[in-house]
Amino acid sequence: MHNFLPFAYFQNQFVEFQNANISIATHALHYGTGAFGGLRGIPDPSNPNQILLFRLDRHCQRLSNSARFLQFDISAAKIQSVIVDFIQKNSPKTSFYIRPFVYTSDLGIAPRLHKIEKDFFVYGLELGDYLSPDGVSCRISSWYRQEDRSFPLRGKISGAYITSSLAKTEAVEAGFDEAILMNSQGKVCEASGMNIFVVRNSQIITPGFDQDILEGITRDSVIKIARDLGFEVIERPVDKTELLIADEVFLSGTAAKVTPVKQIENYQLPQDKPITNKLRDKLTAITENRDPAYQDWVFKVEI
232: exposed, middle or buried (C-beta count within 10 Å: 0-12, 13-18, 19+)? Predict the structure, then answer.
């Protein structure tokens, strides 16, 4: 049961969440012609009248870029302005998640992006831990990640998440927490909605953009933090067998934050995860505005 924030931004105005409804004939519902963002907000631990948002500018720019694949021109500045107003309208008191969404809002049946209405909405819900902070078990999915030559993977296009949904359900129904998808070349790609990192011999390894991954903002943050801490980070193709003999494996994402992996298929990973824990603790301090070196990553909203 989700606890949704009371107000949504819908059709250029703020309305009660339960009144923000679309028609069953909405184009994006039928064809997956939408794109979304996702970011967390938390009350400032040192100021109850302030909300902290992690890398708001990057999230807004990515959604603006995603909208361009739908031939929808919406600026990052417009998205940011609405999100700030949305937070001030709702004045949340607990940790929450924001879902901004751009989509083809016309009531048509032809699959197209030209000469069709587009729109933008924002809603939110209270959200704690998306995955267990103690670690998750993962299955190698039988489903493969799409290729950039057939799908615009640089955007968070809603239609792409049928693959994530198939993989997640397959994993959970087989007794695992999460799925790991391979790409069409048989290399490790990502989880159902998170990027993946492997630690071997104190090196941090992660698939690069040429491996059909999502350009994750948390992924980018983890790489920056790790390098600032003196770790070597290598972006390259990753083989399945590397996961099974890794010193540590962890997932990263807005909802997942930094989540350790404790098991892959029937292989148990080492219980000691010093690098994962160090990165997770650092990221938490940054998002809570407790690290002055990264204050430009934290956007403050007065409520």
Answer: exposed
Q: Whole-angstrom Cα distance, residue 30 to residue 148?
A: 22
DSSP, collapsed to helix, strand or coil, labels residue 1 as coil
Instruction: For residues 88 and 48, state if they share a domain.
Output: yes
Q: Which of 108, 126, 144 is the last residue of a domain?
A: 126
158 shares a domain with 111:
no
pLDDT over 70, % of the chain? 100
Residues 92 and 228 placed together within one structural domain of the fold: no
pLDDT band at 100 (very low <50, low <70, confident <90, very high): very high
Q: Where residue 79 sits, what CATH number does that domain have?
A: 3.30.470.10
Residues 66 and 89 placed together within one structural domain of the fold: yes
For 180, list phi and psi in degrees, rounded to 5: -115, 125
- For the segment 19-32, the average pLDDT, to the nearest whole number, is 97
Strands 118-126 and 178-182: unpaired
Specify the amino acid at residue 152.
Answer: P
Q: Are residues 147 and 281 in the same domain?
A: yes
The half-sphere exposure of 189 on its side-chain side, counting CA atoms within 13 A, is 29
Look at the pTM and tell me if it is higher than 0.85. yes
Q: Which amino acid is at 24?
A: I
Residue-level pLDDT at 48: 86
Nearest to 146 by CA among 184, 192, 197: 184
43/301 Cα distance (integer angstroms): 10
Q: What's the CA gap between 231 and 224, in Å, rounded?
A: 10
The amino acid present at 240, given as its one-letter code, is K
Do the beta carbons of residue 14 and residue 86 sit within 8 Å?
Answer: yes
Structural domains in the chain (count): 2
